[in-house]
TrEMBL record:
<feature type="transmembrane region" description="Helical">
    <location>
        <begin position="84"/>
        <end position="105"/>
    </location>
</feature>
<keyword id="KW-0472">Membrane</keyword>
<protein>
    <submittedName>
        <fullName>Helix-turn-helix transcriptional regulator</fullName>
    </submittedName>
</protein>
<dbReference type="Pfam" id="PF01381">
    <property type="entry name" value="HTH_3"/>
</dbReference>
<feature type="domain" description="HTH cro/C1-type">
    <location>
        <begin position="7"/>
        <end position="61"/>
    </location>
</feature>
<dbReference type="InterPro" id="IPR010982">
    <property type="entry name" value="Lambda_DNA-bd_dom_sf"/>
</dbReference>
<keyword id="KW-0238">DNA-binding</keyword>
<keyword id="KW-0812">Transmembrane</keyword>
<keyword id="KW-1133">Transmembrane helix</keyword>
<dbReference type="InterPro" id="IPR001387">
    <property type="entry name" value="Cro/C1-type_HTH"/>
</dbReference>
């Protein structure tokens, strides 16, 4: 017995007309008729509603109707594929789009904060989107990435601030990624310039392949200017906090 026959059997047991059953299921009388004669099948959601209405299990309602069972299996498979497709779309389109929107919001926020704290655009810089701020003997600089609208995944960008005072220079970035620049002589007399990772107290936290002579010279240079480096690192960190807040 197929599902159409079972629907008709259960309807007659209840002494309902096709019109009455259609009203209970919120479908038309011709729809009930097409089910009962086997022209069409109810969908999965409607089959569950019919099962509940007649008080019989889905297994009992579907048992023996191979075509209906085959149709349901096919629909269930497609439903799974549909969910997989939606998940892929979310990963490929929605997630990157959300990330991109956040990057645009961050860029806008950074630029607003720069304007609020009197930073000016660095018109002489060879890089676009550079900003400068002068306070006393210290010059601060920062670069803000222009995100654009390319629909591709981009890493989250956090601007770093550079502070320069005379021959001393420091750079402060996200997560205490600090560095200082050291050299062996002022101006054109320099034979080397090195950027070295340090903590906020200007202590070296990285190993480089220096000669013993160069290492000693660098350590001496940092020791001689340690107080100034610490002050610059703190000042740059404060300026950066104003931008990314």
């Amino acid at each position: 017995m197929n599902i159409g026959d079972k629907i008709k059997e259960q309807r007659l047991k209840k002494e309902w007309t096709q019109e009455q059953l259609g009203q209970l299921l919120n479908v038309s009388r011709p729809t009930i008729s097409s089910w009962e004669v086997g022209r069409n099948y109810p969908d999965l959601e409607m089959t569950v509603a019919i099962s509940d209405l007649f008080g019989i299990s889905l297994d009992e309602l579907l048992r023996g109707d191979r075509e209906m069972t085959k149709n349901f299996s096919k629909k269930l498979r497609w439903n799974r594929y549909y969910k997989i497709i939606l998940a892929v779309i979310a990963v490929v389109v929605i997630v990157p789009a959300s990330s991109l929107a956040k990057l645009h919001w961050d860029e806008h926020r950074y630029r607003e904060n720069l304007a609020a704290h009197s930073w000016r655009e660095d018109e002489d810089s060879r890089y676009p989107d550079g900003y400068l701020l002068n306070e006393g003997e210290i010059e601060y600089s920062v670069f803000i990435t222009r995100v654009g609208w390319l629909p591709i995944p981009l890493p989250e960008y956090r601007p770093g601030v550079t502070a320069i005072k005379g021959d001393l220079m420091v750079h402060v970035n996200e997560g205490d990624q600090n560095s200082i620049t050291v050299h062996d002589a002022p101006g054109k007399n320099r034979t080397y310039t090195d950027s070295i990772a340090v903590d906020d107290q200007a202590n070296i936290i990285e190993e480089k392949d220096w000669s013993a002579e160069k290492k000693k010279a660098i350590e001496t240079y940092i020791a001689d200017h340690k107080t100034e480096y610490i002050t610059l690192l703190k000042a740059a960190a404060e300026k950066r906090a104003e931008i990314v807040q």
